[in-house]
Amino acid sequence: MKKCLILAVLGTMLSLISILIGLKLTEAATVGEVYKVTFMSVYPPAHEQYVLTCQYLDMVEAATKGRIKFERYPSHQLVPPRQALDATGKGMIHILNSYSPYYSGKVATGCMGFPGAWPNPASWAYNFFNDAELRNLVSKQYLDKSNVLLPLMHAFVPGSCFIMAPGKEIRKLEDFRGKKIRGPGGAIPAIFKRLNAATVTLIGSEWYTAMQRGTVDGVMGYPYTLRTYRLLEVAGSVTKYRMVPTICPMLFVNADFWNSLPQGLKDTMIKVNEEWTWEVMMPAVAKQELADWKLAKDKGLQVIELPKEDVDKLNRIASAIGREWYLSTCKDQGYGEVARKIVDKMEKATNEWPTLEKKLLKEGKIRKGGYMYPAE
After folding, report:
1. Which pLDDT does position 244 carry in this prediction?
2. Which of 176, 216, 171, 215 is CA-nearest to residue 194?
3. What SS3 class is residue 225?
4. CA-CA distance, 158 to 287, in Å (whole number)?
5. Residue 192 and residue 214: Cα distance in Å, rounded?
6. Closest Cα to residue 372, out of 151, 344, 363, 356?
7. Is 339 exposed, middle or buried (0-12, 13-18, 19+ CB in 10 A)?
8. Which tens digit of pLDDT belongs to each residue from 36-47?
9. Do 48 and 15 meet the contact criterion of CB atoms below 8 Å apart?
């Protein structure tokens, strides 16, 4: 009996040793595992979004010592832009760089770039990084509808302007009347309608041809599109008016992929994301926007600023319509309460910005001219 007891104890010890060895081997395999991540951008290789986002991917690969390796697909090589969110949710794409308003018919809560929303890009980024509830609110509808999470910031936030064909200048509010203008969707069609202008929906690759053929009188675009979409060749004027900042989610992550990553890798990606946002993305966008305005003038385009009274009036019109569209559309999709909470956070951020700006400048997190809209 004593012999049997000894054998039983030895058997138990051997089993425990086997389990421990197995755990160690599993841990070692996990520690050394390389994750191949499919990244797609709807933007072409020369586009600032793609170039700057690839810098983030490079930083992640370096910080993880190669444990995360990105397979990169620019120019929506895997699927068309408007199908890309669904493809991400299904796992065909792990991380997608795209534009939220493309998917507003399915997920409206992400279309928060309406006039009078976040006070500026720095406020949006700071609140995203420091408010877990905000991140969860912004992710909720994407997760429910598309199996997508939004754990990462993408602060490519140039301000919009009106790039018009020769003879179609917008010098005052009344000049919108009768114009056919490319708009990005969301609240913009309702704003254009109020201004007696017609909205034409186009993706970026269609802007040049539409202006060249007279399909549109101009586009509501961004200063960088004068170069990247070659609109310098077909434009006669640019009217500075920041109707819509692109403050909205632009990095979409498949939820299953994100949840499968070890916590250490997720923490690294988030840490690098914050460094990239403040130290690379925002300064680069601000610097390039100034260069693009200079390029427009150097190439002979008329650079027009609306009279102050028109700007004030347009701000009131656009802000009221934008907020109403956002809240009502989200409500129609069943996410009215989520949208209201997001809007409340926007209002709080706007009220707190003067104090926060001083704090961030003092800490060196932001620098004058490197986080706002330098053309203003």
Report:
1. 65
2. 176
3. helix
4. 11
5. 18
6. 356
7. buried
8. 999 999 998 988
9. no
What tokens appear for 76 in the block? 């929506």
| Confidence check: pLDDT of 291 > 60 | yes
One DSSP character per residue, 180-201 reads EEE--STTHHHHHHHTT-EEE-
CA separation for the pair 285, 48 (Å, rounded):
8
CA angle 332, 336, 339 (to 5 degrees): 125
198: number of Cβ within 10 Å: 16
**Which architecture does CATH list for 30-103+124-132+142-156+249-285?**
3-Layer(aba) Sandwich (3.40)
Structural tokens at position 110? 């992400």
- Convert the pLDDT of each residue in 327-365 to its tens digit: 999 999 999 999 999 999 999 998 998 999 898 888 887
Which of 193, 353, 226 has the alpha carbon at shortest distance from 295? 226
97, β-bridge pairs: 41, 251
- Work out the angle at residue 72's Cα, subtended by the Cα atoms of residues 68 and 74, and round it to the nearest 5 degrees: 155
Helix axes 336-363, 121-130, angle to 10 degrees: 100
